[in-house]
Amino acid sequence: MISKFDVSVRSAQIHLFVFLGAVAIGTIIGGPVGDRIGRKYVIWWSILGVLPFTLMLPYANLFWTGALSVVIGLVLASAFSAIVVYAQELVPGRVGMISGICFGFAFGVAGLGAALLGKLADATSISHVYRVCSYLPAVGLLAALLPNLERVELRAVPEPAD
After folding, report:
1. Would the pLDDT of 159 be above 70?
2. Distance from C-alpha of 104 to C-alpha of 112, rounded to nearest angstrom
């Protein structure tokens, strides 16, 4: 924001704070929504749902960058709690292990991604990295490969009349 919009450090920090607040709220909202409509739908919606907003972000002005960042933070972060619970359902009885793997994997991949994006920024520009990152939610198409875990309600089948 500082290089693109020539804002002060204080202004950039306020925008970051607002974005991170939206991420926190999205994380909290994702769990109950996943319980109501299904975790797979929340994962789909949150990852692919942000794609139009992230594609607009590199071309938005300062006002719309702030607004889009809030929407992206809310929607994208709603997937995290749904992903953790979804993974816990895949391996029942191993709640702690699965939670640790999810958090560890998420932070590990984020660290590697940050290093690779930093290297790309050094080789090109931060604006180029910004545009590249706008396409990353398209990876959410892989959610189509997730198995359905929704429980089917069993109903008694009436006996045929004699």
Report:
1. no
2. 12
